[in-house]
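Hi V.,

Quick status before I head out on leave. The structure for the redesign project is tokenized and pasted below; the design run finished overnight.
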């Protein structure tokens, strides 16, 4: 059975670089070249709407100009149209496959939309063309961090700083990745290196202060928070964390003064920590997210969204019981938050508490009866609990909700196959393949259905297609065919 998943992650993109030269096609058309130059100037001045209009005019004259598509994509991204940007970058790459800038910015845009595998693929393509592009290594490291691959991220950040030793962001990001892996000393060293590269980086000084405090170096922590405030005097969190650290050192007056300054800068200090925690979680710094969200809740224990975000961070780090506790606290403050019931149910499921999980997903659907992912996953749970008919009802409900998704068709097909409803299963797998023709599981399942219907030739066609898509399935497919042939001979 396949589980559906939801989630959005946003990571800040680096400043886009516009190509300032026209293509060979434009060189043959003075009007197109003139329009291109005007578009570039408009883009550089911030008039992206005007730039898009001019790039579009260029493409009407020279419709196969990769640079015009690429630059129009950059402007679309600047105006908040990431899908349009991706389409233009893709068209640029179709025309000029060796345009690494397009694959680079398409990767960053995909990551902004939460498509981490797509972003990784594009950044791999960029680095295949130029293995020594430090920015691309740094961005790929951020992508791996967001995907939970801290070890791979550290390798990319290390390669980035080997090429550009002044890339403070890479030292800082590597420090966060090491922190995620429990390497406190390595994290501390990287934060120090980041500060040495860019002494005005307030965020680095603040983060190093938090790390020192966690390691018990309270005086060192105060020094770093003070450095952060020297760089950024309106850094409310630095004042607050310095106040709590001073309190632990017995400096009650200094602690009170810092709290007052923090609240003067940010009257909604708890929400400021909450926003910081959510940002850290979205960027893959789950331990840092928990730390910031815990601070938010220490100030205001009624922040339902902070409990929820901390629960998500704990769940990602494998602390499912801690996540369940946070989702429960979320619901104590806001009992109408359907997502909290859903996430608590999924955490319970991962701990094999199927009854508790079913109860929570049912509550999710009472609050939000139009959530196809919850119907699909409750269907999987019902199937595991032996309620095949209930599972089929849930998959069917998920299928009814738009847009149509392949996974509920596949799951319903698996359910029907186990019930020997071969025709029903066949219909469902056909729909799944129509919606997602590149998922090998769908072809394997339909092939096994054909075997159940004693249609060996049709089964072989599906198995061959699956192996074409994923050659490592060859042994599994051969074993399935051998078992089928043996069963016929033994009858």
């Amino acid at each position: 059975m396949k589980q559906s998943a939801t989630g959005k992650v946003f990571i800040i993109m680096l400043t886009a670089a516009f190509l300032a030269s026209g293509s060979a096609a434009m060189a043959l058309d003075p009007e197109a070249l003139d329009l291109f130059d005007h578009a570039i100037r408009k883009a550089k001045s911030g008039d992206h709407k005007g730039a898009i209009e001019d790039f579009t005019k260029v493409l009407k004259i020279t419709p196969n100009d990769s640079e015009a598509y690429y630059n129009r994509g950059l402007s679309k991204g600047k105006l908040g149209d990431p899908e349009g940007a991706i389409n233009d970058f893709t068209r640029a790459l179709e025309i000029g496959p060796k345009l690494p800038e397009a694959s680079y910015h398409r990767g960053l845009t995909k990551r902004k939309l939460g498509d981490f595998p797509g972003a990784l693929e594009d950044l791999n393509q960029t680095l295949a063309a130029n293995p020594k592009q430090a920015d691309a290594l740094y961005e790929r490291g951020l992508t791996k961090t967001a995907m939970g691959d801290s070890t791979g991220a550290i390798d990319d950040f290390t390669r980035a700083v080997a090429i550009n030793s002044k890339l403070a962001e890479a030292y800082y990001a590597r420090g966060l990745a090491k922190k995620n892996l429990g390497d406190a000393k390595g994290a501390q060293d990287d934060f120090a290196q980041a500060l040495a590269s860019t002494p005005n980086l307030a965020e680095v000084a603040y983060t190093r202060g938090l790390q020192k405090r966690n390691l018990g170096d309270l005086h060192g922590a105060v020094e770093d928070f003070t450095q952060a405030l020297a760089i950024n005097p309106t850094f409310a969190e630095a004042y607050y964390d310095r106040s709590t650290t001073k309190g632990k050192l017995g400096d009650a007056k200094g602690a009170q003064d810092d709290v007052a300054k923090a609240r003067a800068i940010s009257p909604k200090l708890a929400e400021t920590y909450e926003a910081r925690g959510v940002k850290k979680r979205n960027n893959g710094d789950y331990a840092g997210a928990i730390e910031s969200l815990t601070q938010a809740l220490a100030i205001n224990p009624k922040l339902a969204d902070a409990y929820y975000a901390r629960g998500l961070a704990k769940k990602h780090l494998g602390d499912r019981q801690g996540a369940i506790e946070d989702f429960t606290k979320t619901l104590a403050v806001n009992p109408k938050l359907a997502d909290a019931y859903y996430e608590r149910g999924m955490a319970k499921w991962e701990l094999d508490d199927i009854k508790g999980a079913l109860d929570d997903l049912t509550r999710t659907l009472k609050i939000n009866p139009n959530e196809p992912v919850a119907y699909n996953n409750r269907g999987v749970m019902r199937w595991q609990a032996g309620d095949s008919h209930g599972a089929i009802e849930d998959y069917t409900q998920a299928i009814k909700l738009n847009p149509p998704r392949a996974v509920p068709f596949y799951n319903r097909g698996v359910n029907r196959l186990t019930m020997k409803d071969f025709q029903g299963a066949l219909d469902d797998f056909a729909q799944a393949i129509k919606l997602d023709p590149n998922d090998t599981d769908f072809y394997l399942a339909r092939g096994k259905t054909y075997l159940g219907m004693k249609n060996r030739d049709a089964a072989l066609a599906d198995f061959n297609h699956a192996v074409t898509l994923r050659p490592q399935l060859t042994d599994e497919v051969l074993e399935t065919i051998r078992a089928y042939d043996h069963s016929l001979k033994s009858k």
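Above is the designed sequence. Residues 5-28 have pLDDT under 50 and may be disordered.

G. will cover questions while I'm gone.

Best,
W.
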